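Running co-folding for adenosine-5'-triphosphate.
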Amino acid sequence: VWWPHEGRIEVKGLVVQYAPDLENVIRGISFDVKAKERIGIVGRTGSGKSTLALSLFRFVEPTAGAIIIDGIDISSIGLEDLRSRFTIIPQDPILLSGNVRSNLDPFNEYTEDEIWESLYRVQLADAESRSGDGRATADPGAISLIATLDDPVSEGGRNFSQGQRQLLCLARALLRNSKIYLRVSLQVTISTSPHPWCRLKIIVMDEATASVDFTTDRNIQGTIRQEFEQSTLLCIAHRLRTVIDYDRVLVLDQGRVVEYDTPYNL
Ligand code: ATP
Ligand code: MG
């Protein structure tokens, strides 16, 4: 059976520190997220939002407490397996030097059209940019719209802005989402019971800080909304406005939950 098949998250008494001699960054937090709920996570800088997101993928390991997803404690799941089951758009994604194609499709799994489709959806390309010579920008190192899949990506992705790097990560997530579905539908053709729920059931978005303009923010939100309608969504936001229509908002302060309620009640 595919896990997670619903996307329920239970965080129980989670405590996280980055090193034994450092203070706890997450100080015993507990909350539940229902399947398909959209949760906004807000709080001052340094309150532990990214750390919480990273804990879901075990990029940091808790010193106490547990995260349980659809009834399974994630500490019992292998790291590689865990990280392939749901996806995070990190706050400051690092791209590999190469080109757009090698970053979106490192294992040559997708067709050219599938890759372009994902770029259209995150609005990093349009038919015009693809067919033409792209949009020249004043700064030759900067890329506005992607013109060819061979467009270069420099070390760390520094020729892209933080927001654009996030959009590329999102494009990669869209590709993966389609692939998981295909893989599962193959299984479905051999098994008898159809499982149309086997997509990425949990998506975590750690919004970029300062550099993201309003339009990019809206694009990211719009794309996530459309593409991951059936998924549980955790979105770390820097503006309450971004998550004002979410189901609930979790407010963190110094590693503790101080509010967890509908945006209306906050
Ligand atoms: P922001 O809104 O600025 O993104 P945040 O809420 O995401 O902040 P975190 O990145 O989770 O905050 O950081 C929480 C605390 O943990 C901070 O005090 C930070 O200095 C510390 N911290 C974060 N990453 C590490 C690390 N790799 N090693 C040691 N301490 C860290
Ligand atoms: Mg952060």
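Result summary
Residues 136-142, 181-197 have pLDDT under 50 and may be disordered.
The chain has two domains: 1-86+200-266, 92-178.
Job closed.
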